[in-house]
Amino acid sequence: MSDTLYLDADIIAYRAAAAAENPIDWGDGEWTLHSFEPDVERLMELFIDQLKNQSGINNVVSCISDKQNFRKEVASYYKANRKDTRKPMLLNYAKTYLHNKYKGMIIPKLEADDVLGIMAGTDPNCVIWSLDKDLLTIPGRHFIDGELVEITQDEADRWFYYQTLVGDSTDNYSGCPKVGPKKAEKILEDSEDYWASTVTAFEKAGLNEDVAIENARLARILRAEDFNAETREVILWNPS
To answer: Per-10-residue mean pLDDT for the chain, 240 residues long?
Structure first.
């Protein structure tokens, strides 16, 4: 069976919908913003064709975030900084288009990233694409910068703990106080137990393991073992 390219369709839809918006000056201080569905479709198709040509994979599946998000049950502040941000006018149209044309996958309470992560551990023919660096926490085959790249289990695990330490201001979780990229790399560099080293860093900052676990659960892009396919329920991450 040939490979399947699973796409983070949220990113494709957002970029196309934003790029298709055009301001019009009607004079006398009056402006309006216009967007046309065919322009959004054209931009998305051009980008997907480029990915298909570069990867050599023609079978494409679009993965789209559900409107509900289980991480907001872990921490109510997750992505709370985005609630007042205006989204492109045709974003929902773009997502619907991709869902209908490219075998769209939406799983209740999961983000597109999570769907990609689960499929990477479920479908042996899966190749995943996203511009989100968080996907590096997923072991498996990725299509990155025009190349097929294999992310090992250790590389994925290390990136997961790195994300737990540095946090993500875009997603509104802080990670470990006063731990930036360089310090996080140093903490994990010679570690024989990534989690123990991560907890030690939180404790040195005056925080306990529960805070580290909460940040880890927010940083965790779901893998196949983090999701019960029969009950469709998330298995929250716990240190082993």
So the answer is: 94 98 96 97 98 97 97 96 92 98 98 98 97 96 97 97 96 96 96 97 97 98 97 95
Judge contact between 23 and 46, C-beta under 8 A.
Answer: no
Please indicate, yes or no, if residue 10 is contained in any of the structural domains: yes
Two structure tokens written together for 23: 């301001």
What is d(CA 20, CA 82) in angstroms, rounded to the nearest whole number? 21
Q: Residue 4: beta bridge partners?
A: 59, 126
In a shared domain, residues 80 and 22 = yes
Let me know whether 116 and 188 are in one domain: no
Domain shared by 132 and 187, yes or no:
no
Q: What is the pTM of this model?
A: 0.95
Q: Residue 33: which domain range?
A: 4-151
Tell me the angle at which helices 9-19 and 112-120 cross, rounded to the nearest 10 degrees: 140
For residues 221 and 228, give the distance between their C-alpha atoms in angstroms, rounded to a whole number. Answer: 15
